[in-house]
Amino acid sequence: MNTVLITGASSGYGLATARHFHAQGWRVIATMRNPREGLLPEGVRVLPLDVTDPGSISAALNAAGPIDVLVNNAGIGLVGAFEAAPMDYVRKLFDTNTFGTMAMVQAVLPQMRARRSGVIVNVTSSVTLAPMPLAAAYTASKQAIEGFTGSLAHELSPFGVRAKLVEPGYAPTTRFSQNIDFAIEDMIPPAYADFAAPIFATFANPPLTTKESDVAQAVFLAATDGSDRLRYPAGPDAVALAAA
Known about the structure:
Layout: E1 3-6, H1 12-23, E2 27-32, E3 45-48, H2 54-64, E4 69-72, H3 87-115, E5 118-123, H4 136-156, E6 161-168, H5 193-204, H6 212-224, E7 231-234, H7 236-243
Parallel strand pairs: 1-2, 1-4, 2-3, 4-5, 5-6, 6-7
Helix pairs in contact: 1-6, 2-3, 3-4
């Protein structure tokens, strides 16, 4: 039975992905900073993991044992004018979205390289497919992983290890700014109000949206696709952006 370890599995895409892999008969290790009971089906193993903490990463991987697929889904968001973005939070954004992903990859590579098999699936965002306003810092944190994964795919191929990207579109139900400790209104200074208003109106009523199940299915496809394909847009809006 194949084993997948998924980061950020307490809600949203990560939770849906853990449920999907379990339904396909995989051994699932769902990780989250603060494990909670009752989120996942019986048989899914839940482990604590903070991807910004090296000790937490080491403990989780030691407890998990060998894994065939790593899904780097843990992430935090930020919307608003970059001019107003607290730099402490921007650093936190990169610590989780960028360096946390890199740290997880570095930690699992020795076992995958030794077995000459394994798949790393890094979940980014459709903001990497086209420039989008009011998401500069978030986009930067995800674009870094796009470049990282593309390069990684080349250097891991001689060892039979594949690196993949899943690029979800916009899901209104996703708690994009759930980890911020300041009011989102503070991210739109008065000078940006007229510019931001129609953008937030589109956020409230987007023409195309992504469902959590779209992302779960794309992650599963990326994990099981034995080809050299790198990118897997997830959701109709992401697919349209990728095609454009």
